[in-house]
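Re: [ENG-882] Designed sequences occasionally contain unexpected residues at chain ends

Forwarding the minimal case from QA. Structure tokens:
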């Protein structure tokens, strides 16, 4: 009994074919797609780089959840390749955010703090809810772990957006907004690297196993 519970809690065994896992991903996919449109519109209206960056993160996560649904139940090699692709997109997102923050430093204006705070709080509720649903799968393979890392990083980013809104309101400066954009870039870059490293390790393990089987045969 305890062994079965451990397998389910860790996202191993039959978890990849678990209806609950797939249902959670569908819920996360719909929520992230909706938040992309909400947050992008608010970010443009408020001239907030942090909100726009977070909106693109929602878009990327929606795409990542769709990929995870497509490879769930497939062989480890295919799941690892999907995770490798997701890790690369997360890394590119981080680099984009960093470039956007640098551009805004020279060309941006002070964002609307009220809009940042309201939309940032809504995004936080969404991401915390998704992260809680995915918590039991946080130690699975690279594909499962990538989904958990995305949700965890998003919740942390939302707290930073809310803090930036308070900073903008208190100082009337764009610095807090740009600082959050930098934090989000760092989270995306480190998260992407973690996923890529684990996915490559899994692919190497699969390749070595295949070679061992071939030599035995």
């Amino acid at each position: 009994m305890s062994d079965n519970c451990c397998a389910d809690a860790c996202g191993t065994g039959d978890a990849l074919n678990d209806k609950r896992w797939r249902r959670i991903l569908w819920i996360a996919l719909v929520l992230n797609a909706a938040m992309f449109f909400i947050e992008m519109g608010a970010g443009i209206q408020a001239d907030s780089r942090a909100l726009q960056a977070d909106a693109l993160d929602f878009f990327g996560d929606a795409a990542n959840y769709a990929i995870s649904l497509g490879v769930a139940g497939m062989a480890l090699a295919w799941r690892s390749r999907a995770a490798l692709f997701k890790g690369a997109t997360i890394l590119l997102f981080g680099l984009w955010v960093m470039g956007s923050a640098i551009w805004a430093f020279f060309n941006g204006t002070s964002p609307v703090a009220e809009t940042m705070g309201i939309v940032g709080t809504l995004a936080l509720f969404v991401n915390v809810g998704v992260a809680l649903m995915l918590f039991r799968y946080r130690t699975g393979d690279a594909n499962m772990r990538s989904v958990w890392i995305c949700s965890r990083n998003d919740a942390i980013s939302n707290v930073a957006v809310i803090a930036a809104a308070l900073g903008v309101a208190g100082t009337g400066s764009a610095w807090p907004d740009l600082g959050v954009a930098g934090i989000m870039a760092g989270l995306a870059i480190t998260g992407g690297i973690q996923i890529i490293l684990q996915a490559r390790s899994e692919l190497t393990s699969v390749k070595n196993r295949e070679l061992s089987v071939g030599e035995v045969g």
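QA comment: On inspection the terminal residues look reasonable. Residues 175-216 form the longest helix (42 residues). Proposing we downgrade this to a documentation issue.
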